[in-house]
Amino acid sequence: MKVSVILVSHNMCKLLRQTLGALSQSIKNIEAEVILVDNCSDDQTIETVMKEFPNVRLTTATVCKGLSRSINQGIKMASGEYVLLLSPDVITKTKTIKNAVDFMDAHPLAGGVSVRMLDAEGNYMPESKKVLPRTWVTFFKMTGLLKQFSKSRLTEHYTARHDDEFDTTETDVLSDKFMLIRRSVIDNVGLLDERFIRYGANIDLSHRIRLSGFKNYYFPKTYIINLQHDRLEKLSWEHLKSFYGAMFIFAVKYIFRLPAMHVKPVQDLYPAYEFKG
């Protein structure tokens, strides 16, 4: 198996149908499997997928608590050489996945890759090359963690310049909309840290990939279409708790360094901690 595509969905039936429809065309000429973890939806997701996409490996979240945990459930089911973590609200074009896989095949030191992202109107989204949210950068300056990231990429590529849109570059952080990662790298650095309930898991995993000696890339020669932005209100308690809680978890994790994060799954190396409001 070349690629295992993993999606996690919660009450996104309408968008998910579009995503799975486009995905079926993107993997038509690739040895691939699609794994959908339904995260406690109460809409028609399960019935629709079973009827319209019978080739999708559908499972339900064992515990409906956190995106990272559901993604890990899908990764454990995967058998592909590559694992693609795909958001259920994006459209992949016919050659999107093949081009990304070809890039990874040609770059053995690449641990993961993300691609160019357009909005529903076809406009380039600078978030495609976003390295760290501004709030995280400020927080890392205060805690001294900023030195662990590339200064040039933080200052120049936080909001990508238009003339950088088509430049293939290294990046510190892979986009959580499309993360194509070598399964061997995941086996090496560990699964997603489930303490990151909603935000920060992609930052943490990307950081561990780099610490293990691999590189992360932004590859703009292919693209995805993002159908919708984050549905959580930016000033809602759930957003604030998840966003700032993720920063706190990350800081605690790397300020108080524990050895050899790449030797075994990170969950085995750190005491269980969960930010609670």
UniProtKB/TrEMBL annotation:
Ranges that cross the membrane: none
Residue ranges annotated for the Glycosyltransferase 2-like domain, each copy included: 4-187
Protein origin, superkingdom: Bacteria
InterPro entries: Glyco_trans_2-like (IPR001173), Nucleotide-diphossugar_trans (IPR029044)
SUPFAM superfamilies: Nucleotide-diphospho-sugar transferases
Protein known as: Glycosyltransferase
